[in-house]
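Protein in question kept underneath.
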Amino acid sequence: MAQQLAGEPWLAFACGRYEGIDERVLADAATRMRVTPVSLGDYVLGGGEVAALVVIEAVTRLLPGVVGNPDSLTEESHADGLLEYPVYTKPASWRGWDVPPVLLSGDHAAIAQWRTAQQLARTAGRRPDLLAVGAGPLDLDLALATPADAGELWTLQRACWLPESQHNPGLLIPALVETLEDVRAGLAQWRTVVGRLDGRLVASARARTNPDDDRTWEIGRLMVAPDLRGRGWGQQLLDLAASWAPPQTERWLVFTGAGSERNQRMYRRAGYRLRPDLPAPAGAVAMTKRHAGPRGS
């Protein structure tokens, strides 16, 4: 909500006292402007002043120029749907407590992976409700993946991509040669959703901003257990992963095997088109879909 309110040209706050504001006042105001009741949580305050201050601070710090380093806003709790990773300062050792060695290594990729893993673990421990994505058709329970899911993801991707190797002879498919550690590392680089049916991990997809173009939202590892295909889960996961795209996104991008006609048909039904002009891994093809925004690809 803070992001949405920060984009408004102006805001006016009406702070109720005790029982709140007379409903007629709200109805009358709504005839001239948009009125949005806001609740901070399941508790009662004596008045709305403190609540208004919370909203004002949450919104104003998102305005350009308020925070010195705007990139820091993307790393805070809830910015990406997760809690923030643990923060450490100097000195490196304090009262017998040391800063994790990876943070002192200078390896930026390893640090980024550690932070994402910590975000997932902290969110799973403190706010597991934030990981829940919702229920899909036929009681498919969706949630953001955590490192604890890596083993099942590793097994699932091998089961799903083995048939793909038969449709694409000679193609080196990363999903079939990755180690368990590779899968864990991928969870730190991609936003990954998993779907469970009666506790069994049966479906997954992942997405991220393309490393070479921040206007492209890349979707990958779309998979459903072979014995459960044909239920519409793949389309649901594709739509979900696409919905995560940030505002600057101009197009969605997927890669699939050049010989994977079944996959290409599904993507075409979803509005994706083959893009032979775009680079793709050997033996694969790129497909894109224009973002439904003010700009296109």
About this structure: Residues 163 and 226 are 9 Å apart (CA to CA). The longest helix spans residues 108-126. The domain at 78-130 is CATH 1.10.1270.20 (Trp Operon Repressor; Chain A).
